[in-house]
Specification:
Spore Coat Polysaccharide Biosynthesis Protein SpsA, Chain A; 22% strand
Amino acid sequence: MWRKLLFLLVLVLFSGVSPLLSSSESYSDACDARSLPDPLTLRPDRLTVLINGYSEARLPLLNTLAASYAAHPLVDAVLVLWGDPSTPAATLASLSSQGDGSASVFVVRNPSTSLNARFLPRAAIRTRAVAVCDDDVEIDSRTLSFAFSVWGSRGGVALVGLFARSHDLDLERRRWIYAVHPDRYSIVLTKFMILSVDYLRQYSCWGRLSEARRLVDRERNCEDILMNFVAAKASGVGPVLVGGRVRDWGDPRNNGSGGGAEVAIGRMGLSARHGHRKKRGDCITEFHRMLGEMPLKYSYGKVVDGVGEQGLCEKGGKLVLCDRQD
């Protein structure tokens, strides 16, 4: 407990000056409401960014991403959730504090490699919304602002994301499969996802999910799918997909034209592993069985930040959008 109190004291002393903080978050305290901020004090006009980190090879990119999020005017704090307990503290020193005017950046060393840790309630979260993201996805500043505004406009109950997938039924095998559809979706990925802080507590503390969380640990996968189950069950609505500018360094389809680092990063991701899609379909089937219901709901379409003219005109010998200003 004394470590927890020391952690909170450091947060108070250094809030607003963008420090680097290395600490551990106790799983035993995560579901104790007394260790968390009063929900009535959480800010509705800011969000906390939770970046999941594990690979030391990605530290240069992670440092850039943390600095970019910290400089965004809507970001209250950036928490780098480091999932490899064996990494020396000195190695993480590259995640240095940001300059004046930036949000605070904290490094939280998780006590285990569990992917469930990315959804733990945390005392450092002082906002109603959190953005959960991977350490290989770079979000344009305007896109982040727009996604947060969409989250607020939907009452803060739906998951808002930039990468969508779907569940589908294999009638012959009587099992769910993990799919990509051009016209509908029911899952948004933790590559980038905005959600209510309430869902962190439901995911981590709801006893009925104990078996499902163990499945996540066993498979080292599917924590994002389980969060979609949690949000859909709690809200009764499907996720919201927004359009925007995103650089996905971890997509295995990167061909390396920008350098060998893209290929190396892409090969580290879970999605690059053999059998990834089947495993995620199995997770959907098992979560359904464990909960005794299928809460996932389909959504349709994408929310964009403006309605521009779609007509094409010839300008300078090229076909371009007619409203394009040369």
